[in-house]
Amino acid sequence: MVTVAGLVLAAGGGRRMGGPKALVRGDDGTAWLARATTLLASSGCGPVLAALGAEAEAAARLLPEGDGVVVVPVPRWRDGMGESLRRGLEALARVAPDASAVLVTLVDLPDLRPEAVARVLGSAHDDPDDGALRQAAYGGRPGHPVLIGRRHWAPLAAQLSGDAGARAYLRAHGAAVVDCTDIGGGDDIDTPAARGGAGGAVVDAEPSGLGGEG
To answer: At the top level of CATH, which class does the domain 3-196 belong to?
Structure first.
């Protein structure tokens, strides 16, 4: 059985949100960070890593106890999402030696559905091909989660910089598009107002410095 690791990118300062999104809680009191890591773990991913940067210590305290989430420090989180993903991929090579792929998602997708995760995973757990590349799409727009086979970790990490994520790499290497439009939940939340009818998000702590989104 192939092991698929999980990676939650949650290092940014959340400038438009008013604080790091890793510290935001939903109306039910559940931290977005905890929701994301639990979603991946409950979907069969392991180990699950969380890339943390802004207010990393406060964010780490929101992780569910006993889930064994591995914290990946991102000291240069202000550089953007590309730096967070690069750090995460480099850490995976060390802490997930048996993983053939990683499923990547963002902390600011509080409405991401387990069905979307399952659809992108597909038969990944039974597929020995470590060259898999799959990306969820919503209404024709690329989104998350994204499945990245181990064979791509090093070359992708070498290309990452600034706030650019894996989109160009996925496109260049023919990533399979997995339509999740009917499932929904793929919209990232960048501002408190974007929560709309779901209510306002609450930030747990005052950020010490704001920078790149994440």
So the answer is: alpha beta
Q: What is the mean pLDDT of the chain?
A: 85
Number of other residues whose CB lies within 10 A of the CB of residue 128:
8
Amino acid identity, position 44: G
Q: Which two tokens stand for residue 208?
A: 């010490």
110: cis peptide before it, omega within 30°?
A: no
Q: Rounded to an integer, what distance in angstroms lies between the CA atom of residue 20 and that of residue 16?
A: 9
For 17-49, the pLDDT digits (tens) are 778 999 999 888 999 999 999 999 999 999 999
Dist. CA 85–CA 92, nearest whole Å: 10
Distance CA 33, CA 23 (A): 7
Q: What is the pLDDT of residues 86-113, one digit of tens each?
A: 999 999 989 999 999 999 999 999 999 9
Each domain of the chain, given as residue ranges in start order, spans 3-196
